[in-house]
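User: Some background: our group keeps a shared notebook of sequences we're curious about, and every so often someone picks one and asks for a predicted structure to add to the entry. Today it's my turn. The entry only has the sequence so far, pasted here. Could you supply the structure so I can complete it?
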Amino acid sequence: MTAKEMFEQLGFYEEISPMYENCIWYKTKDSYWNRELKFYKKDKLIYNNLVYGGFTMNGSCPIYPELLQAINKQVEELGWK
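Assistant: Of course. Here's the predicted structure to add to the notebook entry:
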C-alpha cells in the first residue's frame, strides 16, 4: 500500500496546487476545521497543522499510530530515510 492510499484510508486527500509544486500536501475536510500535512521535498520538512477558517495552528494536528505509519511510509517513498 502506498502512503497516498494510507492517508486516504485515514480520511485525507491530496491537495494539488501550483503554489506547492515542491510539496506533497494532504488535507482533511471536516465541518469546522481541516487538518493538513505538508511534505516539502526539497527541504525535507513536514508541517503538521490544524486550520480553522483562515487561522492556522502550526504543529497542532494530533498524531495517532495509524497516521504515524502513513507519515513514515511517505518519508520512505521520498527517500528521506
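Suggested note for the entry: The first strand starts at residue 13 and ends at 15. DSSP finds two helices and five strands in the chain.
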